[in-house]
């Protein structure tokens, strides 16, 4: 059985037969075992130098990454074998450098905590209510004392080398992110289309005449000569266009200057996430993106009427040449595809 003992903080006291309490004294915390660095100043200084060495090692690893990144060159006239050799060397230098940089910071921090920071056992009772002003002031004092005991303020060698290691370590990440591709600018703002380019069927190739586009017909087209561009795959990803013919009186007034006899051409790249907008519903004259169901209305100059896309599909102004083939009247007036920061 048990009873509530108000004389002992309201705790429950277990009773044996005869109502004799069976209590156990609180054994408390075990006796603290001091480390060598707690009792020997020479050992503490030696540990401090070891921690600083590890942080300096991390700094060296970061510098190795940066030097290796810029010193191993790749250029177009490399042979396949030479390219693979340089790629392998680059991967090894970057991998080893990053490993040393991370290991130096991690092991140094652990060694610092294990040998120099306080390791005395303490018991802190949690409470859910806001402490009194005296308790809060005491907590601030304890934090300041802990910071002092950690040695961060009075061990400038460790502090400065840690700051140096942590300041250098993010640099490879900045370099790597910068090299993930060209900054958005002209590469994303312009396409291969220019005035006079014939509309070539994709993927079969060959020009297309206005007379070939019957009412309701849909064709996927690319600009003439795109296969001979320096980066054809990149250019195709931006230049894909959908060609559609519908009744001329169904077209919006703003789309008529870029149309030819009811034939309109719009970018095939969804303005939400860049998926191909290739589903055409002939009865409603809607274009549907299959990825996230953004819907564009051809009769409203491809205005977004449903889904997450925020901008209409850009229109490519078209006309015909002397032979009756459909050609671009002018390039796109705006960037195609999803938004980006530098978009005009």
Automatic annotation (TrEMBL):
The chain crosses the membrane at residues 51-72, 92-113. It is found in: Cell membrane. Residues 238-327 form the Rieske domain. The keyword Metal-binding applies. Keywords: 2Fe-2S, Cell membrane, Disulfide bond, Electron transport, Iron, Iron-sulfur, Membrane, Metal-binding, Oxidoreductase, Respiratory chain, Transmembrane, Transmembrane helix, Transport. It holds the Pfam family QcrA_N. InterPro entries: QcrA_N (IPR045603), Rieske_2Fe-2S (IPR017941), Rieske_2Fe-2S_sf (IPR036922), Rieske_Fe-S_prot (IPR014349). It is a multi-pass membrane protein. Belongs to the Rieske iron-sulfur protein family. Iron-sulfur subunit of the cytochrome bc1 complex, an essential component of the respiratory electron transport chain required for ATP synthesis. The bc1 complex catalyzes the oxidation of menaquinol and the reduction of cytochrome c in the respiratory chain. The bc1 complex operates through a Q-cycle mechanism that couples electron transfer to generation of the proton gradient that drives ATP synthesis. This is Cytochrome bc1 complex Rieske iron-sulfur subunit. The lineage of its organism: Bacteria, Bacillati, Actinomycetota, Actinomycetes, Kineosporiales.
